[in-house]
Design goal:
By secondary structure, the chain is α+β, with helices and mostly antiparallel strands. It has two domains: 342 residues, 8 Propeller (Methanol Dehydrogenase, Chain A); 260 residues, 3-Layer(aba) Sandwich (Rossmann fold). 15% of the residues lie in helices and 38% in strands. It contains ten helices and 38 strands. An eight-stranded mixed sheet has the order 30-31-34-33-35-36-37-38, with helices on both faces. Strands 2-3-4-5 form a four-stranded antiparallel sheet, with no helix packed on it. Strand 11 and strand 12 form a beta hairpin. Helix 4 crosses helix 5. The longest helix has 20 residues. It is globular and about 70 Å long.
Length: 630
C-alpha cells in the first residue's frame, strides 16, 4: 500500500477517544489452587472481580452489586483469595466482604467505618489480617473469616502499615511499617509479631524488628512454604535486592546482586514482585532493568539464576502470583509490551503463556503502534537522564518535515514509566506526534542515587530534564523544535506549570492535569499518605518556607504566556481543585489562551469513561489550534 503524505499530527489514527475511554485497566490478579484465576478489572469508575476456571470453561463476574476498590492512601490491596473464598473491599463503604466464587452472596466481615485494605487470609483460613485506617489512625487488624466476631487491633502506634504476611504455621505475622516524614521508599521497618488466641480472639504478644531503618526501605515480606525463611527486598549498594532471613539462625543472605531493581516504590498496598515456588526451592522475581521487566528464577540454596523467556515478548510484568495446579507451577501476571496492550496472562515454567483478559479489544494490528525505545541524554549539569521515545508511526501515512513533540512528565514524582504499553503515547504517536516520556532524576528504576536526586530539588531537576530531553530530540533531528508541548499530571502537572513559568516561549503549549500550584496549601490539605512528602522534596516547614514560595507556581503564574490546557477532578483530595482554580483565574485575567475542564465525580486521576473520552477530544482540538496551526 502506497504512503500518503500528510501533516504530522493529522494522521488518521485507528485509536479513537472512545476506544481510549472503553479500555480497561487491571489492578490485581490471583490464583486459587482449586484451579481458578481471578482478576480485578477497572471498568470506568467501577472495579469488578472476574472469575475464570483454568480449564477454560466459562468466565463470569463475581457479583453485580459492588464496586471493588480499597482506598487506604492511594489504594491497592483490593482483594485476596483463599480456597473458594474471595475477600474484597467495597469502594463505597470501605468494608471487607467475603464471597464464594463457586456461588452465593457476599457477606460483610467488617463494620462500615474507616477504610480497609490488603485482606490477608491466615494459612488455615480462620483469620483475616488487614490494614485499617480511621480518623487518620492506621493499624493492623484481624477478624475471623466467618464474620462472627468483631475486628480486633493487632498492632498500632506507627503511622503506616503495609504488606502483612502470615507464617505458614499461623503463629506469626510479618509486615512493613514506617512513620512520618518518611515515604515507604525512604525508610521502613520489617517486623514480625508473635500471635496467640486469647478467649477466642487473636492478639499479638511480642514484636521483633528484623531489619530496616529510617534510611533503608524494605519491601514485601514473604515466608517460605516450610516457614524457615523470610524473604524480602531491601536496598543494598544503590539497588533494591532480594534477601533471605533464616528464622532459626537469624542470618541474612543477599540473594541477588544485579544492578537492577527487584522492588517498586510502594505507592499502593498489595504490591509484589516475587513469589516462592510451591516447594520453596525457587523464587520467581520480576527484575526491572533499563525500564524493562524480566522474570528470573533463582535457586534459594545456590542463588543460581535462570531467565524465564516467554513465548510472547512481554516487557512489563505486574502483580506476580503463582499456584500449583495439576502437578505444575502456574504463574499469573498483568503483562504488556510497547506494542501489546495489557493482558491478564498465565505462564507455565517452560515459558508458554495463555491470555485470559485483554484491556483493549486488540482489533488494531500491533504493527499500527509505535515502538517505544529507551533513550538517554546528557542533562543540564552533565548527568545522564533516562526516558522512552515514541516516534510518530502510521502504516500508510508519511509526514511532512519534522513532527511535533509531546514531552510527558509522569506523576509521583517517585515513579517510573516502563517500556510496556503506553496508551497515551500511542494515541498521539499514531496521529503523527513524537512522544517523549521523561524518567527525570528523581524517578525510580535506576537506583537509589538517581531516585534521591530530587530531594530538595523538586521543581529544578525535573524541569531541567524535560527541557534537555526536548533539546536532545531536536539536536538529533527527531522533532520540530518550534512545536514542543509539555504535558503531565499531578507532580507532572507541577513540572508543566514550572516549565511554562521559568522558560516562557520554549514550549508551544502546555497540558496540565490536576497539577500542584501551591506547595503551602498542598502540605496543609493533601491526604495523610503524602502529608510530609514535601519534607524530602522541598524541606521541612517552617525552615524551608522560602523554598516553598520559590517552587510554588501560583506566586509566579503571571509569567505564563504560552497556551495551556488545564484539567481537574472536582473531588480531588490529593491536589484539591483550588490549586487549578487559582491558576485559571490568572490566565483569564491576563487573556492567556487556555481551556479549563472541571470533572464532577472525579478524584485524583480520571476513571470515568465519559471523562476520558472528553479529555482526548478536547486536548487534541487544543493542540491542533495552538501547536499544529498556531
Amino acid at each position: 500500500m502506497s504512503e500518503i503524505e500528510l501533516q504530522y499530527g493529522l494522521f488518521p489514527s485507528p485509536i479513537t477517544p472512545l476506544a481510549m475511554a472503553r479500555g480497561l485497566s487491571f489492578a490485581e490478579v490471583a490464583l486459587s489452587p482449586l484451579g481458578y484465576l481471578l482478576w480485578l478489572e477497572n471498568r470506568s469508575d467501577r472495579g469488578v472481580i472476574v472469575v475464570k476456571p483454568l480449564d477454560g470453561q466459562g468466565r463470569r463476574d463475581l457479583n453485580a452489586d459492588f464496586a471493588v476498590r480499597a482506598k487506604v492512601g492511594y489504594g491497592g490491596g483490593d482483594f485476596a483469595v483463599f480456597g473458594e473464598w474471595v475477600y474484597f473491599i467495597d469502594a463505597i463503604q470501605g468494608r471487607i466482604y467475603r464471597q464464594s466464587f463457586l456461588g452465593g452472596p457476599a457477606q460483610p466481615l467488617t463494620p462500615a467505618f474507616g477504610r480497609a485494605a490488603a485482606p490477608t487470609p491466615s494459612p488455615d483460613g480462620k483469620w483475616l489480617a488487614f490494614v485499617h485506617t480511621y480518623e487518620e489512625k492506621d493499624v493492623l487488624a484481624v477478624v475471623d473469616s466467618s464474620g462472627q466476631g468483631w475486628p480486633q487491633i493487632l498492632v498500632q502506634g506507627e503511622d503506616f502499615y503495609m504488606q502483612p504476611a502470615w507464617h505458614p504455621k499461623g503463629r506469626h505475622l510479618a509486615w512493613i511499617a514506617w512513620n512520618h516524614p518518611n515515604m515507604p521508599w525512604d525508610g521502613t521497618w520489617l517486623r514480625i509479631g508473635e500471635l496467640e488466641v486469647y478467649h477466642g480472639h487473636l492478639r499479638c504478644t511480642t514484636v521483633e524488628t528484623i531489619t530496616g531503618d529510617e534510611r533503608t526501605s524494605i519491601f514485601q515480606p514473604l515466608f517460605s512454604p516450610d516457614g524457615r525463611t523470610l524473604a524480602y527486598v531491601a536496598e543494598s549498594e544503590n539497588w533494591w535486592q532480594l534477601w533471605l532471613y533464616d528464622l532459626q539462625t537469624q542470618e541474612r543472605r543477599q540473594l541477588t546482586g544485579a544492578p537492577a531493581e527487584h522492588a517498586l516504590p510502594a505507592w499502593l498496598q498489595g504490591m509484589r514482585t516475587f513469589q516462592f515456588s510451591p516447594d520453596g526451592r525457587w523464587i520467581f522475581v520480576v527484575r526491572n532493568q533499563d525500564a524493562r521487566d524480566r522474570l528470573v528464577k533463582i535457586s534459594v540454596e545456590s542463588g543460581e539464576e535462570t531467565q524465564v523467556d516467554f513465548d510472547t515478548p512481554y516487557t512489563a510484568l505486574g502483580q506476580i502470583c503463582l499456584t500449583e495446579w495439576q502437578g505444575e507451577t502456574v504463574l499469573a501476571f498483568i503483562a504488556s509490551a510497547a506494542t501489546l496492550p495489557p493482558r491478564v496472562i498465565t505462564v507455565h515454567e517452560n515459558g508458554s503463556t495463555q491470555v485470559w483478559g485483554r484491556a483493549y479489544a486488540e482489533d488494531i494490528p500491533f504493527s499500527s503502534y509505535s515502538s517505544g525505545k529507551p533513550i538517554e541524554w546528557i542533562g543540564k549539569d552533565g548527568e545522564t537522564v533516562h526516558g522512552l521515545f515514541y516516534p510518530p508511526h502510521h502504516p500508510t501515512a508519511k509526514g511532512k518535515g519534522l513532527p511535533p513533540l509531546i514531552i510527558h512528565i509522569h506523576g509521583g514524582p517517585t515513579s517510573q514509566v516502563k517500556n510496556g504499553f503506553n496508551p497515551r503515547a500511542q494515541y498521539f504517536a499514531t496521529r503523527g506526534y513524537a512522544f517523549l516520556e521523561v524518567n527525570y532524576r528523581g524517578s525510580s528504576g535506576y537506583g537509589k542515587a538517581y531516585r534521591e536526586k530530587l530531594r530538595t530539588f523538586w521543581g529544578i531537576y525535573d524541569v531541567e530534564d524535560a527541557l534537555s530531553g526536548a533539546q536532545a530530540c531536536v539536536e538529533r533531528g527527531l522533532v520540530d523544535g518550534g512545536k514542543l508541548v509539555i504535558m503531565g499530571g499531578s507532580a507532572g502537572g507541577f513540572t508543566v506549570l514550572k516549565a511554562l513559568e521559568d522558560y516562557p516561549g520554549f514550549f508551544k503549549a502546555g497540558v496540565c492535569l490536576y497539577g500542584v500550584s501551591n506547595q503551602f496549601t498542598l502540605a496543609q490539605e493533601t491526604h495523610k499518605f503524602e502529608a510530609h512528602y514535601l519534607d524530602s522534596l522541598l524541606g521541612a516547614l517552617p525552615q524551608a518556607a522560602a523554598i516553598y514560595r520559590e517552587r510554588s507556581p501560583i506566586y509566579f503564574v503571571d509569567r505564563i504566556r504560552d497556551p495551556v490546557a488545564i484539567y481537574q477532578g472536582e473531588e480531588d483530595t490529593v491536589v484539591p481543585r483550588a490549586q487549578s482554580d487559582a491558576v485559571v483565574e490568572s490566565l483569564r485575567r491576563r487573556g492567556v489562551p487556555h481551556i479549563y475542564h472541571l470533572y464532577a465525580g472525579e478524584g485524583h486521576g480520571f476513571r470515568k469513561s465519559e471523562t476520558i473520552e472528553h479529555f482526548y477530544k478536547t486536548v487534541e482540538a487544543f493542540l491542533r489550534e495552538h501547536v499544529l496551526f498556531g
